[in-house]
Amino acid sequence: MSESKHISGLARGLNLRRTSNKIAAYGTVLALIVYVARSVSEQWVVGNPMTVLEALSSSLVVFVAWAVARELDPDHPWPAAVSMLASFIVALWFVPAALVVAVASAAVRMISGTVGRSFTVVDLGIMLIVGLGSGRELASWSIAILAFVFLKTAPEVGRLRWWAIGSLTAGFVAGWYGGELSPIIVTTATAAATGGFLVVAGIAASSTKVSVRTDARTGPIERKRLAMSRLAAGVIMASATLLGGFDAMWEIAPVGVALGVVAVVSLIPVVAGPTSDGLKPRTTSAETAS
């Protein structure tokens, strides 16, 4: 598909010929089956902490956890699989906020620049959803702020820049108007967790290596942007915890899980495993310069 005919500058396909993508697809289906079975059994035995609708949204969030890890570490497939499994386990106790996790994933993708294509009209709708999902609670406002900074500065936004900013703003205002701003209560525990997320993000961003190209095949993914995406994930988790407490933290826990796994890989490179589903990494002069 040529650059002039692409449908979206943010959407990515799922190539099931790759092992990591098969894991994502099969893992999502398996999570859905387990969650629905758990929901039905608990409905009749011990109450109903997870409805069927929540089972569906939670299984989608498990997939998003995989996607976030792929954005934060596009070179290595296994961190995404680990993030998916960990998020599946977390969602057994804490039902995630599917919309907030999804828009956080979109923001991380925008910053990392893994797609590398210019925006289309479809992306205006995505920006509307990002604004709507992040504007409902103060704890998620950082997502909209990060998206706004990207729209103002990223070269691939292109001629639709101000339309995209307008869509993001409209969605944010609608979310803010229909949402609820809870009081901010900072405790020693939430402050410590906030600092912890920032430290983990710093670790993940301090050792950033990437060899794969963007989806648009315009060149290798920029190390600087990949590092910024890891910092952005940390900011999203830190602001949610500081402003919304542990309830908000658990609602978007898949983002923190993915960041934590990627930080471990950055800290201990020997456990990174194969690159790009076993493909040898590309080495280019542009990559070396970045």
Structure, explained:
This protein is mostly helical and 290 residues long. It has one domain. It is 65% helix and 0% strand. It contains 11 helices and no strands. Mean pLDDT is 86; it is low at 278-290.
Give a topology summary.
Blueprint: H1 19-44, H2 52-72, H3 78-90, H4 98-112, H5 121-135, H6 141-153, H7 161-178, H8 188-206, H9 223-251, H10 253-267, H11 285-289
Helix pairs in contact: 1-2, 1-3, 2-3, 2-4, 2-10, 3-10, 4-5, 4-6, 4-9, 5-6, 5-7, 6-7, 6-9, 8-9, 8-10, 9-10
Strand content: under 5%
- Secondary-structure element string: HHHHHHHHHHH
Low-confidence stretches: 278-290
Compute the average pLDDT.
86
Number of helices: 11
SS content category:
mainly alpha
Radius of gyration: 19 Å
Give the end-to-end Cα distance, rounded to a whole number of Å: 27 Å
Number of strand elements: 0
Overall, the morphology is globular
Q: What's the helical proportion of residues?
A: 55-70%
Give the tally of structural domains. Answer: 1
Biggest pleated-sheet summary: none
List the keywords.
290 residues; mainly alpha; globular; disordered C terminus
Outline of the structure:
It is built from 11 helices and no strands. By secondary structure, the chain is mostly helical. It has one domain.
